[in-house]
Amino acid sequence: MASSNDVVRIAAVSDIHYGKSSQGALVPLFSEITERADVLVICGDLTDYGLPEEARLLAKDLTSTVRIPVIGVLGNHDFESGQEGEVTKILGDAGMRLLDGDAVEEQGIGFAGIRGFCGGFGRGALGAWGEKVIKDFVQEAVQETLKLESALARLRTAHRIALLHYSPIRETVEGEPLEIFPFLGSSRMEEPLARFGVTAVFHGHAHRGSPEGHTSTGIPVYNVAMQLLKEKFADRPPYHLLELRRDAVAVEPPAERRAQGRRAGDPGSTGESSDLAARAPSTAR
Ligand SMILES: [Fe+2]
Ligand SMILES: [Fe+2]
Fold first, then answer.
1. How far is the CA of 211 from the centre of ligand 2 (A)?
2. How confident is the model at residue 5, as a pLDDT?
3. How far apart are CA 273 and CA 47, in angstroms?
4. Of the bound ligands, which one is closest to the alpha carbon of residue 14?
5. Within the chain, where are the H helices?
6. What is the 277 CA–ligand 2 centroid distance (Å)?
7. In angstroms, what is the span from residue 75 Cα to ligand 1's centroid?
8. How many angstroms does the Cα of residue 251 sit away from the middle of ligand 2?
9. Is the pLDDT at 185 greater than 60, yes or no?
10. Which of 43-47, 155-159, 252-256, 276-280 is predicted least confidently?
11. pTM of the entire structure?
């Protein structure tokens, strides 16, 4: 069995929507995470209206409570007031690393992040055809996908984790009204995940979606929207804990990696998952 030093524990949550009266709201959650995990990731909608004062309240709670690295991406709500630059700066000054087509390494694990965009899934995805405004809309998803691709290409770590706000697959938005599926994500973002052998994907945005799904190549995708985790797993704090081995081999054939991803993505209802099972008969959850 792997010892605690052999594994990195990633706690993931999303859509915390800090508003003007949120001061202290997530201190208990952040306290638990800082005790149990090695890295905290937050997948967007950090604020409710994208206001600097909201970001400052979150920054205060993070700096007073969290003693582990914090990595994240912005969500659509963080753009609402057109002050996303200031929101990014405030949270950056508080030590949070916000990724926008960037990659960082922490505890030997690689993280690539984008906000992502919408447009729908599979055969129902909106195509770049007709009016310019439709082409521009589709182009946004294409651009975000290119940013994800270049971020993933920079990572040389054994494990690559993708952070998105919007979903790259349909499965984790199921539970939402069918009519709004196209506004919850885009399957255009799925292709680079397989090509770069991503270990797992975290996203949010679909507050009433499904907690877990897989890409067409078997990569586990976790919707960690806090509202969803609260509703589905009322008996535990609303975050997902993913455990990864530090000593994973750095270069693996994509096919083998995908097979491991399939086995890693079976957390049951505990909200925890581990890649340990793919490598040793461990009982990490
Ligand atoms: Fe949200
Ligand atoms: Fe959102």
1. 15
2. 79
3. 27
4. 1
5. 27-36, 52-65, 84-93, 132-153, 191-195, 226-232, 254-264
6. 33
7. 7
8. 34
9. yes
10. 276-280
11. 0.89
| Contact between 79 and 44 (Cβ < 8 Å) | no
| Residue 16 CB partners (closer than 8 Å, separation 6+) | 26, 42, 45, 46, 58, 226
CA of 13 to the centre of ligand 1 (A): 11
- What is the distance in A from the centroid of ligand 2 to the CA of 119? 14
- What percentage of the chain carries pLDDT values higher than 70? 86
CA 15–ligand 2 middle distance (angstroms): 7
**Centre of ligand 2 from the C-alpha of residue 76, in Å:** 5
Residue-wise pLDDT for 86-145, tens only, equals 999 999 999 999 999 999 999 999 999 999 999 999 999 999 999 999 999 999 999 999
Sign of the C-alpha dihedral computed for residues 170, 173, 176 and 179 taken in this order: negative
Residues 179-192 have a mean pLDDT of 98
Domain 4-278 has CATH 3.20.20.70: no
User: What is the distance between the alpha carbons of residues 15 and 238, in angstroms, rounded to a whole number?
Assistant: 11
pLDDT tens-digit readout, 250-285: 544 344 444 444 333 333 334 666 544 333 222 221
**β pairing state of 102-106 and 220-223:** unpaired
Dist. CA 170 → ligand 1 center (Å): 17
Please tell me the distance from the alpha carbon of residue 51 to that of residue 42, in angstroms, as a whole number.
Answer: 17
The Cα 74–Cα 164 span in angstroms is 8
User: How much distance in Å is there from the Cα of 186 to the middle of ligand 1?
Assistant: 16
pLDDT at 274: 58
Contact between residue 162 and residue 148 where contact means Cβ atoms under 8 Å apart: yes
**CA 14 – ligand 2 centroid, Å:** 9
Rounded to the nearest angstrom, the distance between the alpha carbon of 140 and the centre of ligand 2 is 16
